[in-house]
Amino acid sequence: MGMVSIMLPRADVAAQRLSEVLATEPTVRDxxxxxxxxxxxxxxxxxxxNDVSFRYTDDGDPALSPCRLSPSPARRSPSWAPxxxxxxxx
Length: 90
Known about the structure:
Elements: H1 2-23, E1 49-54, E2 64-70, E3 79-82
Antiparallel strand pairs: 1-2, 2-3
């Protein structure tokens, strides 16, 4: 019984958070007139991010800095290579 009295409030808070997330309106929307690219035209296209940093807050230390991201068309997940030690959020 003691474990249930601990878990129920936690489950209630988790359900409230989930409800908030599901009720949030997305800020990124699909364009009204998207531009379609032929798959054969994109076969030679490449995209790369070099020396990219990420931080959780504006005044915090970078959580990932600098890193290189080079997705390959043949892979479903991108490969990334940190150039420095990744720092967990504090």
